[in-house]
Write a structure and sequence with these properties.
alpha/beta; Rossmann fold; 2 domains; seven-stranded parallel beta sheet; three-stranded parallel beta sheet; 12 strands; about 40% helix; about 10% strand; globular
């Protein structure tokens, strides 16, 4: 078994292979730029359409980042133009995963010809770690979201083979046995019903749990987009569960650039007219599609609250041109003096200064437990909420005296999330690990 240690002064070649969702592609792309900025070479692999939709590479990094296009094979049930989750409704995603798997041969050929030092991949390519190990390529799972979410699923063996203790929804509604400290980490019933399906084989041929377990099992290290200042206890738990290094890369806060577009000028003018720290920002994301009833309850809850709000309301992904977002009759007219409903792209970073997504149940439990946010009360069976629960929650956090602790904690956390020097140190540590890692020339534990 031959091995060598990469010297710090050597230029690395790192391949990036994200899943086909832009919530995954963009963090991989941002991390690519950090690596390239430190003098290393990047090959960024995705589909032709996704590559064409990427932001422009900064001029000083163009020579260091190569965009490599591997098309998706045709798969029955997948629309021909679909290359990302944003292009389709949720029910088509298993077909997208099947098409994603169909690129194995071409990616293998690329790796055989280029023999990079590292490959960083996402949760989906269960088949990739053994290929990289056979070629002596160092391999890492880059996790774009929080450690507690991954920790909830347990050891890779449990993810791959399942567990007799986790067969029905109720089994996911309590913290798992491998978490030995006090926590409220668990799912609500309406979330757990979905989770049961996620652990079952789908039309792609494999469950998401299986994919993630195989990816972790074949990786030498887990890189994760987070920091010790926020979740050190969960990062340590991941190392215990998976018995391999877990290296946080920080939050990678993006720089907010100057923008003189008409859209931003209009939004900024409206925001400047509001009192400081008085506006609620509402965004469901382009891949969330609430029912019209729930959309109406949210709108009427915002109206009832009496609080100024900016609502970035876009058509969900996967819906055709005929789809129309319908708000309650007269809503926009009634709230025009204190609310802005923006129905096209909004510069989220400029509005918020630091973006945080709480789009999963476990994230919501942790945010509420740390007391820098609250969950809107929902029906435990179907996840629905009412206008009154929306209104009461907003007023609690934004107006009431009891909400001061949430406002103070959120301000404290924003200092961590936006600390560029802190997160630059995480990037330095991450790249130092890449440069000094022991490179294995043939498969070991992955065989």
């Amino acid at each position: 078994m031959e091995s060598r240690t990469m010297a710090k002064t050597s230029k690395l070649h790192v391949v990036m292979f994200p899943w086909l969702g832009f919530g995954h592609i963009i963090p991989f792309f941002e991390l690519s730029k950090f690596i390239a900025h430190r003098g290393h070479k990047i090959s960024f692999v995705s589909t032709p359409r996704n590559i064409d939709r990427l932001p422009k590479i900064p001029p000083h990094l163009i020579s260091s980042i190569t965009l490599f296009k591997i098309p998706l094979p045709k798969v029955e049930g997948l629309p021909e133009s679909a290359e990302a989750t944003m292009d389709i409704k949720n029910e088509y995603i298993p077909h997208l995963k099947k098409a994603f798997d169909g690129r194995e041969a071409e990616l293998t050929c690329f790796l055989e010809n280029s023999l990079p030092d590292w490959i960083l991949y996402d949760f989906a390519p269960y088949w990739l770690p053994p290929v990289a190990a056979r070629l002596g390529i160092s391999r890492a799972y880059f996790r774009i979201i929080n450690a507690w979410f991954l920790a909830f699923f347990g050891p890779s063996e449990t993810m791959i083979n399942g567990s007799d203790e986790r067969k029905k929804a109720e089994d996911f509604m309590i913290p798992p046995k491998w978490i030995r400290f006090e926590t409220k980490l668990s799912y609500r019933r309406y979330e757990a019903n979905w989770l049961v399906r996620a652990t079952q084989t789908n039309d792609s041929g494999f469950s998401d749990s299986y994919r993630g377990g195989k990816v972790i099992d074949g990786s030498e290290v887990i890189f994760i987009r987070h920091c010790n200042e926020f979740e050190s206890i969960w990062l340590k738990l991941l190392e215990e569960i998976h018995k391999r290094p877990v290296i946080p890369v920080g939050l990678m806060p993006p720089q907010v650039k100057e923008d003189n577009s008409q859209s931003w000028v209009s939004i900024k003018a409206w925001l400047d007219d509001q009192n400081e720290l008085s506006v609620v920002y509402v965004a469901l994301g382009s891949e969330v599609s609430p029912s019209q009833d729930q959309l109406h309850e949210l709108a009427l809850g915002l109206e009832l609250s009496g609080v100024p709000f900016f609502w970035a309301l876009r058509k969900p992904s996967g819906f055709g041109e005929s789809y129309e977002v319908v708000l309650p009759d007269g809503f926009e007219e009634r709230v025009k003096d204190r609310g802005m409903v923006w129905k096209s792209w909004a510069p989220q970073l400029k509005i918020l200064t630091m973006t945080r997504w709480v789009d999963q149940g476990l994230n919501a439990r942790i945010v509420a437990d740390k007391q820098f946010g609250i969950e809107i009360p929902r029906n435990d069976e179907d996840g629905s909420f009412t206008r009154n629960s929306v209104s009461d929650s907003i007023k609690l956090v934004m107006i009431n005296f009891e909400g001061k602790k949430f406002r103070n904690k959120a301000k404290e956390m924003s200092g961590i999330f936006g600390d560029k020097k802190l997160h630059d140190r995480y990037i330095d540590n991450f790249i130092n690990f890449l440069e000094n890692h022991r490179i294995i020339s043939s498969a070991t534990e992955s065989e």
